[in-house]
């Protein structure tokens, strides 16, 4: 998994958001996540399984990205 792979996957399914967790889990959605809050980058430091120079979230923390789809 990489950031771009997750964004492309979610965008191709017409989702607004792409979220990455635990270095390999990609989640898609159309609604603003509930309880959204910024956290320290230290919480999202798990390297992506497909590109170790990128971080793909953390344990119980998501990196959240916009896809090319807009509400």
UniProtKB/TrEMBL annotation:
Keywords: Glycoprotein, Membrane, Signal, Transmembrane, Transmembrane helix. Residues 1-68 form the WSC domain. InterPro entries: Kremen_rcpt (IPR051836), WSC_carb-bd (IPR002889). Pfam families: WSC (PF01822). Transmembrane segments: none annotated. It comes from the Eukaryota. Its main location: membrane. It is a single-pass membrane protein. It is found in: Membrane. GO terms for cellular component: plasma membrane. PANTHER family: KREMEN PROTEIN (PTHR24269), PROTEIN SLG1 (PTHR24269:SF16). This is Carbohydrate-binding WSC.
